[in-house]
Amino acid sequence: MPKSWTDEAIVLRTYNVGETDRFCLLLTEKYGRIAARANGVRRLLSRRGSGLLPLHRVAVVCELHSFGCTAVSASCLDAHTQIWKNPAAFACAEQGIELILQLTEEGPPMPNVYRLTSDFLTACSFAQVQSFPPIFTLKLLSILGLCPSLTHSSADHRPFSPHEQIVLSRRFGGLTTLGDDPTGIRLSMPLAHVLRHCAELPFVDIPAFSDIFLDELLRFVQGLLGSQLGVSLKVPCVRRSMSSAVTPI
């Protein structure tokens, strides 16, 4: 990483430091995930303060010092204002951000993750959002190499045909056919179809799934996350509590 560089970034989280500074976790296009301190951005007349806020896509200039990275300039490219106006969209966007923070680390460049996250946040500003988090999770796990193959059998690595009965196999540690593992957990044909085509399915073309199908998709995705994280995400629990008028603990 050079001592001074310019890049696009998505602001994942911010933390107030001292009286006027802000500590930012950024997902950049060229340099991956970084932590940068923005000095003086919380002053009333600061021009950078309005850009370095969570969920914003920004053009940022950073400098690398012996004590860490500092953001010396930032301008907002997309504030995703529609997300902030819609509680359901905000909850979905925050679930995606929490996934990024849980599954990635500082260091390696992740241009595919950056583009996926940018498309996800843009999609959350529009349309139906309930089906976006599980699809985003599947795409993210696939990019990071944390997801079993959704298109090939884990038993013999051959591609699935459209009419085969797909099962989740503990024996082979992934998806396979009923013939390979009769004891596997059967997946419905609609779920198997979505899994096979998840990688090339853009967010703008994701249909409004039925509640029954969405429940099955969520159970499948939560099982994958449980195997990778070992813990559940906080955002869905908070969202359910808010929707049921229960104060989250």
Describe the protein in words.
The chain has 2 domains: 4-79, Nucleic acid-binding proteins (OB fold (Dihydrolipoamide Acetyltransferase, E2P)); 82-150 and 198-243, Up-down Bundle (de novo design (two linked rop proteins)), CATH 1.20.1440. Helix content is 34%, strand content 24%. The protein contains 7 helices and 8 strands; from the N terminus they run βββββααααβββααα. The strands form 2 sheets. The chain has a 5-stranded mixed beta barrel with strand order 1-2-3-5-4.
List keywords for this structure.
249 residues; alpha+beta; OB fold (Dihydrolipoamide Acetyltransferase, E2P); de novo design (two linked rop proteins); 34% helix; disordered C terminus
CATH architecture of the largest domain: Up-down Bundle
Instruction: Tell me the β content.
Output: 15-25%
Flag low-confidence runs: 245-249
Number of domains: 2
Strand order of the largest sheet: 1-2-3-5-4
Mind sketching the topology for me?
Blueprint: E1 4-17, E2 21-28, E3 32-38, E4 57-65, E5 68-78, H1 81-85, H2 87-103, H3 111-124, H4 132-143, E6 166-169, E7 174-177, E8 185-186, H5 189-196, H6 211-229, H7 234-243
Parallel strand pairs: 3-5
Antiparallel strand pairs: 1-2, 1-4, 2-3, 4-5, 6-7, 6-8
Helix pairs in contact: 2-3, 2-4, 2-7, 3-4
